[in-house]
Automatic annotation (TrEMBL):
<feature type="transmembrane region" description="Helical">
    <location>
        <begin position="72"/>
        <end position="91"/>
    </location>
</feature>
<feature type="transmembrane region" description="Helical">
    <location>
        <begin position="128"/>
        <end position="144"/>
    </location>
</feature>
<keyword id="KW-0472">Membrane</keyword>
<keyword id="KW-1133">Transmembrane helix</keyword>
<feature type="transmembrane region" description="Helical">
    <location>
        <begin position="40"/>
        <end position="60"/>
    </location>
</feature>
<feature type="transmembrane region" description="Helical">
    <location>
        <begin position="97"/>
        <end position="116"/>
    </location>
</feature>
<dbReference type="InterPro" id="IPR023393">
    <property type="entry name" value="START-like_dom_sf"/>
</dbReference>
<keyword id="KW-0812">Transmembrane</keyword>
<protein>
    <recommendedName>
        <fullName>Polyketide cyclase / dehydrase and lipid transport</fullName>
    </recommendedName>
</protein>
<feature type="transmembrane region" description="Helical">
    <location>
        <begin position="12"/>
        <end position="34"/>
    </location>
</feature>
Amino acid sequence: MAFIKRQYYHYLIASGAGLFMALLGRFVFASNYFNDAGGLLMLCFLLLIPAALGAVTAHFTPRTASKWWRLVFAPFLTVLLFLVTALLFHLEGMICVLMIFPLFMLTAGLGACIYYGLTTDRDEQTKTYVVAAFALLPFVLAPVESQFTAPDEYRRVENTVVIEAPAAVVWRHIVRVPPITAQDLGPSLVDRLGFPRPIEATLSHEGVGGVRRATFERGVEFLETVDVWEPQRRISFSIVPNTATIPPTTFDEHVTVGGRFFDVLRGTYELEPAGPGRTRLILYSRQRLSTRINPYAGLWTGYIMSEIQRRILEVIRRRCETDAASTALAARP
């Protein structure tokens, strides 16, 4: 470490101590002991571990450091160090890291501020007791939290597009969706997060009881059983992931569709008239969230589902309008 000046050693120690706190929490809460209680989605991990990280980092930061550095920048850098470490060593996937990043940033800073408020003008022994309390609190409260079941919340995500084509054309393009290329979909953040792109949707037979097979990249497939069939008006179906085709490495455990934390239950297409030769196509889905942070997790799942649905609707819109334009051109004398 000769390339690092001696006066910076204490800053490295502070970040190292905070990193150790976070990694300890990560391995403890990911253990089988806490798995049934939610593991890394327990509040004790998501809120109290980063608060402890912030307090520990602030405690070991040199007293000569500015208040901004101690309470903001040092916890921020330690959180980044932890998340980068989690990615590099494949402890977590990109989507999980991005989801917890804002929570960790906020609570780490809050933990540092609370520690500072409790220890200002106090002796060293008191400061040691306070930082020790921060470090122990997540593990002391975790068994208590594990006695409570995470609530289920059901959410609906809806997207709409107006298509310059009659309902008959639109209907043909939604009951079955021919293969979709990456160029058809265009770029999106959900691709960078590692979510598979939709490929196609087939239908065993028309009418109630028909089974759509919605295929995505990397072997992901959903079986969609039609229970509402109103030609040129509405099609609705239940959704079940085909676990026989989905490799275990496709999704992170915490965002697995059909898992204990998240599931997509239903999908519906509705067609409404939007003027002469125009159709309003509505796609909505129903999801289940089962975490202790459903309002926050719902922001992420809502965005991801909305983006997936939006891209599918855009592909359908372009295809329908091309189809309608070709039909109109062929009908000209």
